[in-house]
């Protein structure tokens, strides 16, 4: 009896491990499609083919295309959150608040082409601003502003700074207006340095 139960627990653990691996395989395939062809190319069929699995596997993991897009956004946010919470400075802890703000902006811009296309397909702006990913990021920016002794309403200022990094706007500036992501990052840095007190820089 004990052997059977142990075998059952082992198989359940293996199944969970396999499911996590399959989920990551599918997300990696979807992200590669976004980078190569844009978010409109991400269909359940295309992801299944890219990952080398049946289409049913994609539906079981994500439910539908919208679920897949939200999972991609969630993965992107978690990667950035891990970097600014636990990674090396200046993005992670250990650097002055203003340097961390600038590094955050440049890190956000580095993934903007994937995130921007996916965001456009996944949800409305209203959903985005009320969701946990945005609010975790906003809390981080507001905290850095407070650490830099920035005067005024740091929550509203955090929204303003994040608006300059809005995926839809940045993609328009980059693809239509012709600005490079480096130029947009330089402008974000100049914006941060204008709002943070001189004695904190």
Automatic annotation (TrEMBL):
<feature type="domain" description="HTH tetR-type">
    <location>
        <begin position="20"/>
        <end position="80"/>
    </location>
</feature>
<protein>
    <submittedName>
        <fullName>Helix-turn-helix transcriptional regulator</fullName>
    </submittedName>
</protein>
<dbReference type="InterPro" id="IPR050109">
    <property type="entry name" value="HTH-type_TetR-like_transc_reg"/>
</dbReference>
<keyword id="KW-0238">DNA-binding</keyword>
<feature type="DNA-binding region" description="H-T-H motif">
    <location>
        <begin position="43"/>
        <end position="62"/>
    </location>
</feature>
<dbReference type="Pfam" id="PF00440">
    <property type="entry name" value="TetR_N"/>
</dbReference>
<dbReference type="InterPro" id="IPR001647">
    <property type="entry name" value="HTH_TetR"/>
</dbReference>
<dbReference type="InterPro" id="IPR009057">
    <property type="entry name" value="Homeodomain-like_sf"/>
</dbReference>
């Amino acid at each position: 009896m004990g052997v059977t139960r142990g075998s059952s627990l082992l198989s359940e653990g293996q199944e969970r491990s396999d499911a996590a691996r399959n989920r990551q395989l599918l997300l990696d395939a979807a992200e590669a499609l976004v980078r190569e062809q844009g978010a409109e190319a991400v269909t359940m069929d295309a992801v299944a083919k890219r990952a080398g699995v049946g289409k049913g596997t994609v539906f079981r993991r994500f439910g539908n295309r919208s679920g897949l897009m939200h999972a991609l956004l969630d993965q992107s946010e978690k990667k950035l959150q891990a970097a600014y919470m636990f990674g090396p400075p200046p993005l992670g802890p250990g650097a002055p608040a203003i340097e961390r703000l600038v590094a955050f902006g440049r890190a956000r811009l580095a993934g903007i082409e994937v995130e921007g296309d996916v965001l456009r397909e996944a949800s409305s702006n209203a959903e985005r601003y009320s969701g946990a990913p945005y609010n975790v990021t906003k809390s981080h920016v507001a905290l850095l502003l407070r650490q830099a002794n920035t005067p005024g309403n740091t929550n509203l200022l955090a929204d303003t700074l994040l608006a300059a990094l809005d995926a839809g706007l940045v993609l328009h500036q980059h693809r239509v207006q012709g600005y490079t992501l480096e130029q947009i990052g330089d402008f974000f840095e100049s914006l941060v340095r204008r709002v943070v007190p001189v004695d904190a820089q």
